[in-house]
Amino acid sequence: MKDTADSHVTEDGRTIGGTLLDLRGITLRFGGVEAIKNISFDIRQGEIRAIIGPNGAGKSSMLNVISGFYNPQEGEVWFRGEKRPAMKPFQVARSGVARTFQNIALFDGMSVLDNIMTGRLNDMHAGLVAQMIWKGKAEREEVENRARVERIIDFLEIQHIRKTPVGRLPYGLKKRVELARALAAEPDLLLLDEPMAGMNVEEKEDMSRYILDVNDEMGTTIALIEHDMGVVMDISDRVVVMDYGRKIGDGTPDEVRNNPQVIDAYLGVAHD
Ligand SMILES: Nc1ncnc2c1ncn2[C@@H]1O[C@H](COP(=O)(O)OP(=O)(O)OP(=O)(O)O)[C@@H](O)[C@H]1O
């Protein structure tokens, strides 16, 4: 595909399209605390977009605004070219946005397979009554759901643990199962809250590869919060930098790396 006004091809051959999500002038307050101060940025179709910043900068709050957990007091969220009304998280999920959490949120007593299946719940349309009246539709849905989940299990190479209760898995694998569950919803936009937190070097390398593969092979747009700068700079197309609720940088990894304000925020340089 050629570059057009709205899309371009990256060095590694992926196509980044037009704007998928546009955040305009977002302000979020918790009582007297302004967690997000008038921040605007966009996420383009097909890109990997990182949100970085020191502790308490407002990154998780921003992810929570995107996923509908918080509705901002000011500003607008535009998704697929339309202004999004205030929504509940399940409505945002149905619109094609899935997420993982900073602290793993899986059902420990359930198998890997069953945990991943819970990611499909948003897509089950046959209600209880319909299931009784029209068994065929419910069965077809079940078969499709299983097939989709099996594809994800293959993709993330977790066949060997599909029947294992999640509570028995090591940390790195739990994180991979959480990614699988989010992918089961077939999101257009996938939000990852610190996907490498608490991982060793090898686990981080694995997770980086899976994130890149999901983006490349499934065409999923990804926004992630991550503290490991090496990983962020390696896998992201563009990076937003937050500090004390404000946006202090936005651009390619190289642009952000050389931005004096960003360098100051990370090195803690005092200003007059
Ligand atoms: N539910 C809440 N109620 C009150 N204050 C909150 C709430 N959530 C976040 N905050 C405050 O908003 C600010 C931003 O927090 P947030 O968790 O978004 O930052 P962060 O950049 O994700 O930090 P970290 O990297 O430590 O996770 C902080 O001052 C925090 O104390």
Automatic annotation (TrEMBL):
CDD domains for the chain: ABC_Mj1267_LivG_branched
Superkingdom, taxonomy of origin: Bacteria
Is the keyword Ribosomal protein assigned to this protein? no
SMART domains per the UniProt record, alphabetical: AAA
Q: Does the keyword Ion transport apply?
A: no
ABC transporter domain: residues covered: 21-269
Question: Which InterPro entries does the protein's record reference?
Answer: AAA+_ATPase (IPR003593), ABC_AA/LPS_Transport (IPR051120), ABC_transporter-like_ATP-bd (IPR003439), BCA_ABC_TP_C (IPR032823), P-loop_NTPase (IPR027417)
Q: Name one GO cellular component term.
A: plasma membrane
Q: Which UniProt keywords apply?
A: ATP-binding, Nucleotide-binding, Transport
**Pfam families in the record:** ABC_tran, BCA_ABC_TP_C
Q: Name one GO molecular function term.
A: ATP hydrolysis activity
Name this protein carries in UniProt: ABC transporter ATP-binding protein
Taxonomic lineage per UniProt? Bacteria, Pseudomonadati, Pseudomonadota, Alphaproteobacteria, Rhodobacterales
